[in-house]
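SMHD1 protein structure dump, as promised
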Amino acid sequence: FGIATDENFVITTTNRKEITEDNFSELVQDGVTLYLLQSVDQMLLLATKERIDFLPHYDTLVKSGMYEYYASEGQNPLPFALAELIDNSLSATSRNTGIRSIQIKLLFDDSQGKPAVAVIDNGRGMTSKQLNNWAVYRLSKFTRQGDFESDHSGYVRPLPVPRSLNSDISYFGVGGKQAVFFVGQSARMISKPADSQDVHELVLSKEDF
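structure tokens r here:
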């Protein structure tokens, strides 16, 4: 690696967790991406890219884009699909000490790519591991355990309030993916964890599936 004998360096995960003798067996698994840095908080010189392989739940393949679990006969399902996407933002901003900002933008400018629905918030953000787990079907945000770092870490289910959105929409962990593929052909999640300088981006596409 071209490291001088008197030069210090660290090896970290993409979540900036330093690899040590104590956590080596826990953090270093087949296929994991590691950083070789001069310090844990070193700025990356350029963007890194990795392909994430996982076995999709069969519902991802046979039911993506379907909405049978929230649509009723004669109802327009689009508002329900948008509500699923907003649910991620409600959860992400639930612990904000200041203003909670959630925006929905409908983009139709062909010069910026294909038409898209963008949901933007100022929440706590997700790590690369949390983005990976978001992509996996049927992982309830209340039951993610073991190797899974929940995208709703520390989530506390709020008391029910009549006629309000309380981030309990995606209880079964399927809504976001179904909503994405009902509205369009691909999803691009861009997130910066509140306590990190890194920006993580995840792309899921129907074509790849």
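The beta strands are 10-13, 34-37, 102-107, 116-121, 186-191, 200-205.
lmk if u need the other ones
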